[in-house]
Amino acid sequence: MFDSLKNKLQNIRSKFTSNIEEVAGAEPAPPVAEEVEEVEIAEPAPSHPVTPEPPVSGEEAPGDGREKPTFFNKLKVLVREREVLLREKDIEEPLFELEMVLLENDVALPVTDEIIARMRRDLVGQHKKIGSSVDDLVVSTLRSALCGVLGEGLDLRDFIASRERPVKILFTGVNGTGKTTTVAKVGQYLQKNGFSVVIGAGDTYRAGAIEQIRTHADRLGIKTIQHQAGADPSAVLFDAVQYAKAHDIDVVLADTAGRFHNRANLMNQLEKIRRVMKPDLVVYVDEAVAGNDAVIRADEFNKAVGTDAVVLTKADMDPKGGAAISVAHTVGKPILFLGIGQGYDDIMPFDPRTVVNELLGDES
Ligand SMILES: Nc1nc2c(ncn2[C@@H]2O[C@H](COP(=O)(O)OP(=O)(O)OP(=O)(O)O)[C@@H](O)[C@H]2O)c(=O)[nH]1
Asked: Whose CA is nearest to atom 11 of ligand 1?
């Protein structure tokens, strides 16, 4: 998943590190006298008896019984307190490369600009403590820039636990992106997390769609509410909600026909579904492999009918990761899950920190 972006980000990480190391190496060492007073560092036991050194002329021996800072102590403090003041030109080159890498990997332009601005703001013109590892500074700055655009994510279990039963989740999106499979995967995920589920077969438009969702649901032991092909999807989903109420089911998952935001009749149909079903959560499903197109569609869909969260499918086939990085910041709604394969288990709750750590090759 996102291998191209991952490899390139890790190269950029080394570039930033070597540039900053160069600046840090060229800077004069910061003063250490005051810090040395505060720090207690165990000194290695001497291998032979040490005769106390007489004070160097002009220097007072400490009169409070404390040991005078030694060279060894000073060195340790120096490493710990090492600071660097970065100027724009010190990181201009890796910043430019980062910008190119993000754009080449389908990260949307405004999102790329935001990441670069965050990096610049966090690094340039400030004294940065770099301790013994410049790499730590680079990784934490990159991590916070990426997490800044990915937002907080949304834990579906917490969301469901916070709502009245039955919690109604409506899945929408364009044709063939993996919506029906996603409904089945989410059904299994919720069952495994202790919630009971019913599926409403609201795609009455595409030939074979009802049978498709029914087959998935039967395999997973989930009840499906269905009408015949061509029926009004609002009526099907209304029935699914009634069934859930009558049988104390926790969650209704509503499949719907794929549609584009500019197809007026299908969008009106979706409006009707919303009025009748009153969903707690509208989930827009698109495929990560569509890159920037998926981001634009998600944004337009949100503006046309409103979206609460996004699922990106086929992340397993996407080397770039641009849609996953861009969609939450562009649409202003969290990513709920990534689809990572064709099996029912191939769904991953989207945790921004985990994804960023994976991209940076850093487990901390
Ligand atoms: N590799 C991969 N394939 C997926 C993923 N999710 C779905 N698919 C596949 O994508 C294809 C389309 O999935 P569907 O669930 O039928 O798509 P849909 O959006 O419901 O299609 P419509 O009903 O036409 O809107 C199927 O072959 C799925 O197995 C995923 O995360 N990874």
From this structure: 178
Q: Give CA–CA dist 68/215, Å, rounded.
A: 79
Among 89, 113, 91, residue whose Cα is nearest residue 100: 113
Residues making up the annotated binding site for GTP are 173-180, 255-259, 313-316
Residues 6+ apart with CB under 8 A from 357: 143, 363, 364
Q: How far apart are CA 309 and CA 321, in angstroms?
A: 18
Query: Atom 12, ligand 1: which residue's CA is nearest?
Result: 178
Cβ atoms < 10 Å from Cβ of 229? 15
Instruction: Write out pLDDT tens, residues 234-293.
Output: 999 999 999 999 999 999 999 998 877 667 777 888 889 999 999 999 999 999 999 999
Single-letter amino acid, residue 7: N
| Atom 21 in ligand 1: residue holding the nearest Cα | 176
* ipTM, two decimals: 0.96
| Centroid of ligand 1 to alpha carbon of 181 (angstroms) | 5
Host H or E run for residue 311: strand 309-313
List the domains of the chain with CATH numbers.
Answer: 3-27+63-150 (1.20.120.140), 156-360 (3.40.50.300)
From atom 1 of ligand 1, which residue's Cα is the shortest distance away? 341
pTM of structure: 0.83
Closest CA to 216 of 168, 192, 181: 181
Name the E strands within 107-261: 127-129, 167-173, 197-202, 223-225, 251-256
Q: Is the CB of 313 under 6 A from ligand 1?
A: yes
Binding site membership of 318 for ligand 1 (Cβ less than 6 Å): no
Span from the CA of 245 to the centroid of ligand 1 (angstroms) = 30
